[in-house]
What we know:
The complex is a heterodimer. In chain A, 75% of the residues lie in helices and 0% in strands. Chain A is mainly α. Chain A has two domains: 1-96, Rna Polymerase Sigma Factor, Chain: A (Orthogonal Bundle), CATH 1.10.1740; 114-178, Winged helix-like DNA-binding domain superfamily/Winged helix DNA-binding domain (Arc Repressor Mutant, subunit A, Orthogonal Bundle). The mean pLDDT of chain B is 73.
Amino acid sequence: MEDSELLSKIRNPDTRNYGINLLVRAYQQRVYWHVRKMVIDHDDADDLTQEVFIKVNNAIDRFREDARLFTWIYRIATNECLNFLDKKRKRFFFSVEDIEPELSSKVDSSLDIDGDEIQRRLQKALLKLPDKQRLVFNMKYFDDLPYEQIAEITNTSVGALKASYHHAVKKIEEFINE
Amino acid sequence: MRKLEDIPKKIPFKVPEGYFDQLPMAIQARMTGRQRTPMRSVLNVSLKFVLPVVALIVAGIFWLRPGPSPLDQLEDIDTEQIALYLASTDRVDLEDVHETMDWTESELDALQDSVYSNMEYKENLDDILEDIDLENL
């Protein structure tokens, strides 16, 4: 279903709930995986994904269609992830450690994670990157999003994104080969 | 040296079975739950701000409430307990207490009698010198 058709259903009070349900079904997997790669833990990703769609529902009347619906939802999801990680980090404020070891240990021990050793190692290498660089890497490497779309989501220039991605790749390869 | 392109592109995370079938219902339930309870959220916010203010006012009332004066409080204490306290503490000098009291003439005579009645008056200088151990001075 086209975004315009979806939006017209949502904007009609008689079909709003149906429209929102269709929107959730259309985008839930992409949003969930986008969030999950950032927060690692399934329960956190589940909670954040639900929160993203609640925010989408609350703000959809203000969506002006100057961006693609998917880009707009991705931006909300990205903000939710960054806020979540910031809050988590504030809880560690008086601790010497950052959240990276906690997330890294989840990669090692969680039952919701499989994959071979090199894939776990890649995930742990990603956790060494700053949050925003990790986001850019995930969107480019795993989601195959074009730089132009990532630029729209993150409100950054394409040039800066390219530099960030190549820098991230270099750091990841260094970690993997340690 | 291993390069990133050598690693198979795969996300190693799993979700519980049927998770994406149930997620829209969970989201819908949360949305309707939030829409139906605006009063509760207003109440929660009110309680969050009103309760601390009320607690502060109550604490302020207790703090600023005039209590009994020190003299009233002293009257409630048994005289013997005060005497015992004064005798056992070095914070208050008994002479200070005596100076601040408004003695009558007869009270002063009685006090003097009680202080000096046990003292033996010796008029003779030799008697006094006999009592002093000169060798161990």
